[in-house]
Each structure stands twice: as C-alpha cells, then as structure tokens.
Predict the structure.
Amino acid sequence: MQKFMEIAIKQAQKAEKLNEVPIGAIVVLNGKVLAKAYNKRNSTKIATHHAEILAIEKACKKLGDWRLENAEIYVTLEPCPMCAGAIANARIKKLVFGAFDTSGSNSNLLTEILTDTRLNHKVEVVGGVLEADCKKLLTNFFKKQR
C-alpha cells in the first residue's frame, strides 16, 4: 500500500507546483497503476476536477468501461462526498487514503456513502496510509497561502 501511496503523493506534488491544493490519486488494477491524476480545479475552473474524479475518468477510458471492478484507488486525502459517490459508482473495490479530512463536520460521512445498504456495491476503506506525509503536504500548502 505504501508504494502506491507514494505515487499518489508524487501526483499531489505536481498539483502543488501549479498552485492547486496538493491532492493526488491513482487507480490500481491487478497490482499495476492504471491511471494517475491530481487536483486541477483552479487551473481548469471546473468544480468536479478533483484528483479522484480525474483518475477514475482516465481509468475508465483506458479500460473502455465505466466499471472498475477489482480496482483500488489511492488518494492522499480522505475523499469528499462527491468523490466517494464516484468511487462507489465506478464499482471500485478498495479505497486507500492518507490524511483524514478533519475539516468535515461528519466524520462518518465517507463510510456511510461507501457502505450504504441502499447501494448495490460496497467499498473497502483503509485510511491513514502515510498519513503524516500526506498531511504535511496540505499543511505546508495552506501555510504558504496565508
């Protein structure tokens, strides 16, 4: 897991160089990186251009299918509700994230979205992988912004 999170961190660093919030994501299938992406909301001026959404889109295009069954997604920050919904919708098997999003008001929201019994797909969630490294990227970025 750490090896793949390190790749996601490198994507986050690319975002930071563009003055984007440093969040990176990769989609992995059968132990191989299928797609990589980082936040591009500010540069594209498109609200949905989160790292997770962009990585999922690239992976779907590469496979020629919207279903990413048996795939895993690695993200440097706990996904927002929009991205969690996209992860479940894409039928991704496992989400691994680094830093926890402490700015959210409902710490159980991610789990609720990804494991809701009304959905026909459940996502395994693992948080805190290389958490300190992922958190440091975000903390340093926002310190520079102030």
User: Anything to note?
Assistant: The chain has a mean pLDDT of 93. Helices lie at 2-17, 41-44, 51-63, 81-89, 109-115, 131-145. The two ends are 33 Å apart (CA to CA).
